[in-house]
Design a protein that fits this description.
heterodimer, A: 5'-nucleotidase,  domain 2, 4-stranded mixed β-sheet, 7 helices, B: Purple Acid Phosphatase, chain A, domain 2, 6-stranded mixed β-sheet, nucleotide-binding (chain B), Metallo-depent_PP-like (chain B)
Amino acid sequence: MRFTHFFFLLYILFFTSCKKEKLHLTKIEGSKIEITDSLKIDDEIEKYIAPFRNHIQKDLDSVLAYSVDTYSKTDGSLNTAIGNFMADAIYEETYPVFKKRTGKDIDLVLLNHGGIRSIISKGQIKLRTAYEIMPFENSIVVVALKGAQIDSLVNYLSKARRAHPISKLRLLLDEDFKVAEATIKGKPIYNDTTYYVCTNDFLYNGGDNMTFFKPNDSLYVLNYKIRNALIDHFKKVDTINPVIDDRFIQIN
Amino acid sequence: MKRREFIQKTVSGATALTIGGIGLQSFAELNSAKKITILHTNDVHSHIDAFGPEDGRNANKGGVSRRASLVENIRKENPNTLLLDAGDIFQGTPYFNYYGGELEFKLMSKLKYDAATIGNHDFDNGIDGLFAQLPHAQFEFISSNYDFSNTIMHTHTKPYKIFKKDGIKIGVFGLGIKLTGLVDPMMYKETNYLDPVETSQEMTRILKDEEQCDLIICLSHLGYHYRNRPEKMSDLKLASRTKDIDLIIGGHTHTFLPKPTVVKNSENKNMLVNQVGCYGINLGKIDFYFDTQKNKAANGTSIIV
């Protein structure tokens, strides 16, 4: 009995005295380790990823259409073949969706030159191509704008002097880069008319300094990604052969 | 690497000597110097595969299966290791477009991540898209300043978590960036953003004063520093306006810091802010050494970066 008590006491004393020796943070060492090919590959992880990777690779390699030539956003001054293709494709794919949901017609499409992220190479257009041209998840929106605001949009384009992709809008600039003529679907722009402008959420929110989308009469969010519209278009057409045309030019 | 090994060996050698003098085996265990290793990533952005040899900027860098072997080796060396991520796990490669983040979470679980905070891109498939992938994550989501109570994420994140490693209490809390103007409100729905400084003060009060944590780590997706926008909240700003945080692990700005930044907090005490770029190109490693008062350096905690 006594012995047990003694050990018990010893035990308590021992641990309480130890606990008083509190630990303190004495030293911190920081370093950065680069993940390079000199590190061993974990085989189990690699095996786990393989089926996912193979599925994606096979899918991205699937051929959707054929391109007659190589198209780059740097070929052309105020309009480019690749930009015209994109704006027209977005119009064609979005028009029926918007019409079905709202009963209204899209009047024009405006995208941005910087949003074309890669070239389209001559030959097979694969699913991978769509991800290269449009790696971002931006979605299509339609904005209702009065004619007066379309003027701001047109002025923006004349000042930017860049080949921002457009469809159904025609814009002629004079030699001083002033707007000489602007039409939508071949008709003049009227101040009181409401136009339905198709663009993406990035530009709608002021991307590329496109501040003319706000305020507006209404916004229609279609939950339709730009990339998916392009993929749908590639699947529909057999061959693409876009050209630089006269939709946005300077007349001398 | 060699130099560090040498330092470690001398440290453990010295401790063994002191303990030998006392001559009590169990006492030795309680008093010996302890080491906690914090490993971290940020803004991995679905970069599961390493960059190819043709990549213009990051050729042959990154890759989850390499990170896995590295982490395993470090854990073997020191089992008292935490692996943390500072957000933007999602978006950046077709893995995300195809599987919505499923593989990212599954691999992080396989690598035994302990916790992550939420970045703005983790809302890219909407808050519902994030929620849908939660069953694949066997690690904790820690968010202290996103009030999710009116959203589907309610009860699926924790404001803080305390990890116990070798008797050391490590408190971790998480901060997200202001979502207005950055993420479509349709995506984050009724997620309510709370002030990071006020939230941190509340978190450190709980973790330091109430829970008596030995180490406090903030997982932040606020961004390292905004040179042209001084009004914007950042890790450096947060660090200088708060106390009791030992380490801020940052993200969002994809900042490749050559080494962790030593910052003076509101009490003029040194603490660390670190961020390791993006795309799983680097792994951050911070070792915290604990010892009895008598072994503490005269000038307080020594920081070697």
